[in-house]
Amino acid sequence: MDPMQKTDRGMPVAAERIAENVDLRPIPRIAIQAFCETPEVAAALEQAAGDRRMARTHVKIHMGGISAATDFYSTAPTPNLLFVETREKREKALEAVDRLAAVCDAGSKVILIGHTEDVSLYRELLKRGVSDYMVAPFDLFDVIREIGELYLSPSAGPVGRTIAFIGARGGSGSSTIAHNVGFALSRSFDSDVVIGDFDLAWGTAGLDFNQDPPQGIADAVFSPDRIDDVYLDRILAKCADNLSLLAAPATLERTYDFDEGAFTTLIDVMRSGVPAVVADLPHVWSGWVRQTLLVADEVVITAMPDLASLRNTKNLVDQLKLMRPNDLAPRLVINQVGVPKRPEIKPDDFRKALEIELAAVIPFDPALFGAASNNGQMIAEVNAKSPIAETFTDLARRVMGRAPVRKARKTALAPILSRLSLGRRSAG
């Protein structure tokens, strides 16, 4: 149809489509990638990526279709949402989807784009966990509406995953672990991460990221009625690509006494629009800390290899089992291992005493951590090749429920994939 052909009401078709879609809502801060076979589909996705309602997303569009996607993600993490196009018929399309499923990470949503109306194919795709099936041709409004139905409908779950970090004792380095894991998340998965510094009196996130924002987490907590995604955008401080910070005031001008549900609204708003939320909790035991641990998707306990940490970690683990009987056990990180001349509990003995697996063991490296702290940098920025930086990346994958890093394999498509990219859009 000619795009300027008149409708019965005398409006151009383009204007008619705009009028029909004024109710479309802004899409959350998700990472979206697409592998297309036809220029028309790629163009529609490109137009959608340029729309104001997609301003907070991170979009990459490639040519190559479902086979190129399968090859690419055999060595790379999958995004929050993946569009893949195929011109194959039902049986071959399903075979291609099965191969793609073998390399997709848990939690990623997939939309298959096809060129034939096929109800049987649609049913089989849903059985395989594919989120939806779109039939080309379509326009940018169809794309935005499709994404909105996945992430903004009343039945949709939260976009984000909340990871709460807490130390078994003061000085264990829980905040350092939280900040470095958050940084690794933002780099590894190309999707937005928000680090919330919940230690309002003594928080160090601002120092660690060399930030001194005028607004932060205190503004949100003391104005709960104002908290929504627009307000959140205004108080977030940009730290790096895909990484934002809700800094603590770290002042003693007022006391910070909160009721049990003080942070619940803030966490809900962050989870509704951000793929990963890192909650850096202080080493205290209060109603609101307990409630935050209760609602988190993952809990990471940082301990030192000493008796006080062992006792406190056991108390935390036992309490979390009571609070979260249907969740996985918390992840345990033992930090500062190998301090010269200091008697230590061996990590394996620590693990056996608690009957819990170790998520990571971080060696004592005062030069590396000291340089990062003094420069307001993360470990990966000081030394990207450090084994400790690799440990943080591995821990980031674990807390997001991602598969282990896949080993690269040679393929004819790998050398040219970067040249097939049609574009990239990144917005904060």
Fold and architecture overview:
The protein is an alpha/beta fold. The chain folds into two domains: 159 residues, 3-Layer(aba) Sandwich (Rossmann fold), CATH 3.40.50.2300; 224 residues, P-loop containing nucleotide triphosphate hydrolases (Rossmann fold, 3-Layer(aba) Sandwich). It is built from 18 helices and 14 strands. β8 and β9 form a beta hairpin. α2 crosses α6, α3 packs parallel to α4 and α7 crosses α17.
CA-to-CA gap between the ends?
37 Å
The CATH topology of the largest domain corresponds to: Rossmann fold
- The stretches of 5 or more residues where confidence is low (pLDDT under 50) are 1-13, 407-428
Cα-atom radius of gyration: 24 Å
Q: Helical content, roughly?
A: 25-40%
Q: What structural class should be given to the helix and strand makeup?
A: alpha/beta
Tally the beta strands. Answer: 14
Shape descriptor? globular
Query: What's the CATH class of the largest domain, please?
Result: Alpha Beta
Please state the average pLDDT score.
87
Strand order of the largest sheet: 8-9-7-10-6-11-12-13
CATH superfamily of the largest domain: P-loop containing nucleotide triphosphate hydrolases
Counted up, domains total 2
User: Proportion of β residues?
Assistant: 15-25%
Count up the helices: 18
